[in-house]
Amino acid sequence: MPLLPTDASVDAFARACAGLADVTVSFAPPSVSAFDDAELLAAQRTVAEIRRRADAAAAVIAAEVARRSRRELGDAGLARRLGARTPELLVARVAGTSAREAHSLVRVGSVMVPTSVESTEPMPWLAAVGAAVRAGELSVEAADSIRAGLGSPDESVSAQALAAATTELLRAAGSLTLERLAARAREERAVLDAAHVRDREQALRERRYLRITPQPDGMTRVSALLDPESAAIVIASYDAATSPRRGGPRFVDADEIARAERLQHDERTLDQLGVDAIVDLIRLGTAVDPGAIVGVRKPAVRVVVTEGELRRRHGHGHFEGHPEAISIETVERQICASGVVPILFDDDGHALNLGREQRRFSARQRIVLAVRDGGCRFPGCDRPPSWCEAHHIDEWVRDHGRTDIADGVLLCRHHHLLVHNNGWRVTREGADYALIPPRDVDLGQAPIPAPPRDVVTGHRSTRREPAAVGAGPGSS
After folding, report:
1. What angle do CA 46, 47, 51 make, to 5 degrees?
2. Same structural domain, 36 and 147
3. Cα–Cα 20 to 30 A to 267, which of 163, 282, 340, 444?
4. Same domain, 275 and 395
5. Do 185 and 307 belong together in one domain?
6. pLDDT of 124 above 70
7. Which residue has the higher pLDDT, 152 or 260?
8. pTM of full prediction above 0.85
9. Is 308 found in the same domain as 243?
10. Does residue 126 surpass a pLDDT of 60?
11. End of a domain among 239, 268, 293?
């Protein structure tokens, strides 16, 4: 746990944290307005670790509640005896949490104890996850994401293989958001069990729905759950329609600049802009003029797959910017309709240059950057490629930087501005990129790794295979 500075305000905060376990006395969080930036962030890290420790204890307790409420005990089980239909509902009632959080506590608690709640079979492939939660190093939510993403051993994937994948996920967990950790876990399972990607894709597709419910006040509620392919199409259109209001890339085309300014001053909320765009797209259908709704840049739906997997018809691909694995059959269907753009990588993971020396990266170069980087390279950022701008590692004018793929990275608008305006730098050594913070952020300016987010060229980078991009309908 990081040590906090010792001035009076921080001492008061530390004493308050130390007394958290004494529930016999009242508690109110002390003021932190006097903290400097370093103290404020150190306090946040301290509270986060306290929360992880408390949640670990809550998970163990929840698992024991479930054990004492197991089905074979019938009405004598703890939950039924106290009027709760399931142990999770009892945990939610006692702890004041949601049913979803209670289910997560029970599941992770079962990982932390020697045997599973549901059976007496051990789960050795998750032993390291349980140990990390017990030590306060991994949150309950992160542990549950790893558990759900990896699944259980079967005839195709051994417990040993899952244990090895768990080790890799724990090593990366500290640098990933919860959403990206969950996606990485699902991708690890897809890599280990390529033969069943189509089955998992079909299972997700079977869960899709759209519900339209008229409301008494005349409004209509629409709720939906989208499979990866449907989501890729809808999200691409939504992003294209709303990006100027959500921090998307800056525009250089005069018409797009004017459109972005109109949206910035539009009185509609972001949610209203989104629903109006989707309704207009549906209304106009195939006859839509894309410039009237989503701007000059059409919503792009691209499929990324390695050339070797496509040739062997074994493995899986991804919709660009979406981590869920899709089957080779789906990839082939998209390619059949739209063709492919081949992108080759050398043995060091460099995308081979398209050779354009101009101020702005070309559309083809941006496709390569999108496949290679998978989105914004700034650590912790989840912006997809369509929201990013291409940044020259060496300033194009000042340092005579080339507009070459190896010397460019994708950054979202916010982080691109941060790099240019706040003294950050991007460096490259071979195929590895890093961010150098300014001295007012880190006096020693220690490099911060900036690995790619894309599932093809990221943590699967040891599989140096060419990639092919299927440009779906509306790609640009």
Report:
1. 120
2. yes
3. 282
4. no
5. no
6. yes
7. 152
8. no
9. no
10. yes
11. 293
Domain that holds residue 418: 300-476
Tally of domains within the chain: 3
Summarize pLDDT for 45-97 with one digit per residue, the tens. Answer: 989 999 999 999 999 999 999 999 999 998 899 999 998 989 999 999 999 99
Of 251, 274, 293, at which residue does a domain stop? 293
Q: Tell me the mean pLDDT in the region 274-295.
A: 64
> With 50 as the cut, is the pLDDT of residue 409 above it?
yes
Q: Does residue 216 form part of some domain?
A: no
Q: What is the mean pLDDT of residues 292-303?
A: 55
Within this chain, do residues 313 and 246 fall inside the same structural domain, yes or no? no
Residue 214, in any domain of the structure: no
> Do 273 and 409 fall within a single domain?
no
205 found inside a domain: no
**Does one domain contain both 258 and 403?**
no
